[in-house]
Amino acid sequence: MPGEAIQIGPFTGGLNTFSDPTAIADNELVVCENFELDLDGSLKSRPPFVYRNIDMPLGASGNANILGYFYGPGNVPYLIGSDGLSKTYYYSGTAWILITDTFSATSMAQFDNKAWLLAPYGSTNPGGRWDPSTGFTAEAEMPRGDTIVAHKQRLWVAGGRDALLNATTMYYSNQLGESPFWPTFSSTLNTIKVGSGDGQAIVRIAVYYNSLVIFRTNSIYSYQFLNDPGAGTISLLVPNIGLSDKKSFVAYENYIYFMYDERAYEFVNNRAQQINQRVPFVSGSRSGIDESQARAVSLFNNRIIFSYFNFLYVFGLRTRTWSVWRSTTHGAIGEIFSAVTDNDFEEALLFSSTIVPSGGSRVAKTLHMSDIFTTDEEPFVCVVQTKNFNYQSSSSYKRLFWWGADAIFRGRVTAIVTPITFNTSVTWAQMIAYTWAAVGANDWNQAAYPGADVQTVRDTSGGAALRKFVKFLKALRFRQVNYRLEFDTDGSTDTSPVRLFSLMTYVRAHQRVSKTVT
Q1: pTM of the prediction?
Q2: Tens digits of residue pLDDT in 196-212
């Protein structure tokens, strides 16, 4: 057999889009879409997002907003959501059932076996408490706001960005069992100012061990007290880092993961560390996406999922690597909620963050995601692309005889090998495919850079889900080269999961570089 067999992979380094494609590690990828790194070192296709014909009703305006799970008697989970206009619902498993039509709740906290629902700042109707047996009860003196938590037998509320002059104020209830539970709504009792007057709003309040962590627009504070909240201590933990949105936050064990200014952070021991240096967040498109849902952070079965407009940046907690998920069927995906159940697998509910057009009967489609593969379908493409390899010989041309993939898949795979060229002649016939916008960054000496890639398509539909080696025949000459694979799948057991273990290439040194620049 001519040439030398050189294996590429496994790709245990995950995604790296920050560094130059020639400088990243051999086990990293410049594209890793709809895959994730498994513990065995293989890349595994993501589970599908599925629509099961269940909708949340929407009013004339507003978009669906999931608040979280309330656990009722017997630890039965009830997902709470609102329509962004005037109604709040719970999900029964088959439909969205109305809780109240007096307000659209902005946040929810479980306390005293009730779901405490927060009315938005400025609402004429108050929030209140709900449980499946007694229904909804309004609390006339309950503060309005954007975030609520339970801590030390009290409820804590902050108004959020819309609170204006009160955006730096925390409100708290009396202790459980005291009467009245809420002080008079218009009074200044039971209030705490956090950095008053500095122009930063409280975005979210979170419980962290025995204290409250207060995420503001550009800082993070801690608040601690023993018995009397009025005698508590406020401390600045992290300056110049805040929270992009109240949904840009999730807690996992003793960690908090959050997003700020297109950066992902891991918060532990009162310190914040950026974790996406090698994968900066970018948005393919922002058009038609609800800004309040566009920057969300979710936890789903040992994954932290950062929703950033139309991309999902997935951080594997077990492998600490990154990948990107994208749904062309459902568009941008918002916050993802999974319940604590006795099932052997994780299941989550979510909404698209795409704005529902006004007019007619408006509904929000409820999407499901399970961490197992079933008959549920969603067509998507799993894509990987390697770095630009020079095979440790940048000054020599090499010859690729053929290459192949060690993988498990049932369907079609498109294999693309691309030699990196410095200069290639362009004919007028090739220029027909270009617009002035596409070539505007070039000059008359090099109006366009036509692709020199070679594509091969293999189809194994109907075959068994066995590990196989697929060979791609095409000899070519190169100095640098990258490899790309695109697997078609529908996320069901008929075509999934797709697994990629490694690539094998047969290469031989061909000749040295003769031109000054190649």
Answers
A1: 0.91
A2: 778 899 999 999 999 99
